[in-house]
Amino acid sequence: MIFLGGFIDAGSRQKEVIDIVRPMVENQHAYAVMGNHEYNAIAYYTKDADGNHLRPHSENKSFQHEKFLQAYEHNPTEYRSVIEWFQTIPLWIELENIRVVHACWDEDAIAHLKSLQLGSNLLGSELLHASSIKNTPEHHAVTTILKGKKEPLPNGESFIDSYGKTRTKTRTEWWKSYPENEIPVFFGHYWMKDDIKLLSSNIACIDYSVARHGGRLVAYRWDGEKILDNDKFAFVERMS
Fold it and tell me: Alpha-carbon distance 107 to 91, whole Å?
């Protein structure tokens, strides 16, 4: 089992999700990669040398984490333990015949982070602090992997996201430039809709909006094949 991150900040049973996933990973019955929400939670908890949180405790950002914070509000020790566990989750996984990332497999971003961390795919302390500063190479690399690639909207246009924040950039379909001769890559993050199907013969997004009403919890049964198969998807409907 490989989990694709995004365990928190949506849904009413976030603690219960972590209580299932964490022991599976810690007991080596599963792998997981970090999602942008886990990264944000780490930065929200962590302070810099001046005592300021790496992710500011603004009204908007606190609202984004509200349900996660409420799940642990009566147990600060367990909250700290969960944050520490998040920091052990790799940013990406590359096995012999498979690649897994939360949002975007980008060779340049991954190579940059490897060079900074002597090949490590973990979120080290120096990388956490550097990537929390906007417009740094570290920030660009981490946000590309965890949030995907974005492009400015034309003609100065913008839209309001689900958190009420004005956005001037939109996500791009980076997978359209992923070479067909590369090993399969699996990712989440994008809240797909409609039919559950491959994006190409070696690319599968597994996120079909289970945090939304009408969403589905989706998995892919991979048996070592280089050419992926639409018949290998499995899913359950959201219960409520």
Answer: 13
| Residues 92/110, Cβ–Cβ less than 8 Å | yes
Structural tokens at position 183 = 């090993």
Residue 167: CB atoms within 10 Å: 14
Please, what are the domains in the chain? 2-237 (3.60.21.10)
Whole-angstrom Cα distance, residue 53 to residue 207?
30
The alpha carbon of 144 is separated from its chain's Cα centroid by a whole number of angstroms, namely 10
pLDDT, tens digit (0-9, with 9 covering 90-100), for 11-44: 888 999 999 999 999 999 999 999 999 999 999 9
Give 7's contacts (C-beta < 8 A, 6+ positions apart).
14, 17, 18, 21, 35, 37, 38
Q: Is the pTM of this model over 0.90?
A: yes
Residue closest to 88 by CA, chosen among 122, 116, 112, 54: 122
Residue with tokens 């302070």: 47
